[in-house]
Amino acid sequence: MEADPEFELQGLCHLALVCEDMERTVDFYTNVLGMKLKKTINMPNGGQHFFFDMGGDQFLAFFWFPDAPKRAPGIASSAVLPGLGDIATAHASMNHVAFKIPLDKFDEYKAKLDAKGVETGPVLEHDDSPRGVAETFHEGVYVRSMYFFDPDGVLLEFAAWTRELTEDDVNLAPMTAAGVPAGQGASA
After folding, report:
1. Neighbours of 53 (CB within 10 A)
2. How far apart are CA 59 and CA 37, in angstroms?
3. Theoretical Cys-Cys bridge with 98: which of 34, 40, 107, 157, CB 3.0 to 4.6 Å?
């Protein structure tokens, strides 16, 4: 992979989310997902900031604020699991966190979540079809995934790449705020 000439980015340091109940969050991420709690911080405002090891020297962090606003599903977070309805969220929201898992462990990990009472959505075979998801696995599927919520409604994904991505996988112009592909301008 070619290095960035301006910044030597080395992956994700941490992603910081907000929870309603830190005890419940610690229980879910350590006892259900098996992450190790690596750092706990008391904040001057009475809040807390905890870091969980996701592997690869990368962390998932949570803030607990004593007076944080309540969650707003369908605005700041997804209201439903992918494959079961519209997952759109507001601008500047965090839609979901995807954990990379080995493809050969996918079914085993699904069974483990089921055994722990975690409701998962349907297994999604992501492809480049107009729907974006295939009914069954085929050679065009690039990632296999399952989604579930944590106790605070944070949408999580277990994702397994099924093939290497190539230059051919970058073939769309980005959309503008007006909903048109970049460079095409608004039509009259």
Report:
1. 17
2. 9
3. 157
Tell me which H or E stretch contains 119.
none
pTM for this prediction: 0.84
CA angle, 26 as apex, 74 and 45 as ends, to 5°?
80
Distance CA 163, CA 127 (A): 11
Q: Within the chain, which residues score under 70 in pLDDT?
A: 1-4, 185-188
Count of Cβ atoms closer than 10 Å to residue 106 Cβ: 18
pLDDT at 106: 95
* pLDDT tens track for 41-82: 898 888 999 999 999 989 999 999 998 888 899 899 899 999
Pairing of strands 48-55, 58-64: antiparallel
Q: Are 186 and 178 in contact (CB under 8 A)?
A: yes
Task: Find out whether 101 and 160 touch, Cβ atoms under 8 Å.
Answer: yes
Give the helix ranges, DSSP H, for the chain. Answer: 22-27, 106-115
Give me 38's structure tokens. Answer: 């690596």
